[in-house]
Amino acid sequence: MATVYEIVQGIHQAAANAYDGAHDKKYSSDGEDHKVGLKREEGDPIVDSRVMDGFNVRVSGNTLMLSYQAEIKLKEFHDNSFEDDVESTLNDIVKFLKKEYKKVTGDTLSLSAGDKTSIHAQSMSRVRNWIQATKTFKIGGMKDVESTGEKSEDRLDGAIKSFLELGREKAKKPQNVKV
To answer: Which pLDDT score, from 0 to 100, does residue 25 have?
Structure first.
């Protein structure tokens, strides 16, 4: 059974293996395609115009927070299937993370979807927009980890509590204080 540290380290290594250029078999070390599901993977990186998109993972307690950032055209933003496209991109990223985690650690990664996807759009110009999508997942197999957002028990040591109860007035003064 993997420890919490090993699980988090494996997740971050799987995400790091999705760097720009790693997807194309011409540039990869093993000579195979590694498709993540990002828009920047389409076309040739040297000849075609670049598409700006990427993702980030964060772990907080037993929760994985997946963030996706992309630069899109206004026409794409007003399309009826815009939210579905972003959701499918997030699902492709999760599939890639699970597959890459299996390669890195040899274990499987269990992720169960949490809240609804949060999508924020900002205008850059009359043609381009910047979107940021966030989705949370619960990581399976992480034992001895407290979930974030839950109230934790008070675990202050008795000596610390008595020290704090003394306060400024009752605390022992140094010898050089003449008050």
So the answer is: 63
Residue 20 lies in a domain: yes
- 132 close to 117: Cβ distance less than 8 angstroms: no
Q: Which residues of 159-178 are buried (b: 16+ CB within 10 A; e: fewer)?
A: eeeeeeeeeeeeeeeeeeee
Domain count, the chain: 1
Taking only the tens place, the pLDDT of each residue in 137-149 is: 999 888 777 776 6
Residue with the two structure tokens 């990002």: 38
Scanning the chain, the segments in alpha helix (DSSP H) are: 4-16, 74-77, 82-105, 158-170
CB 85 within 8 A of CB 171: no
* Residue 155 is assigned to a structural domain of this protein: no
Q: Is residue 63 part of a domain?
A: yes
Q: What is the pLDDT of residues 27-84, one digit of tens each?
A: 566 666 666 667 666 666 556 556 678 889 999 888 999 999 988 888 888 888 888 9
DSSP conformation class of 148:
T
Rg over alpha carbons for the chain, rounded to the nearest Å, is 24
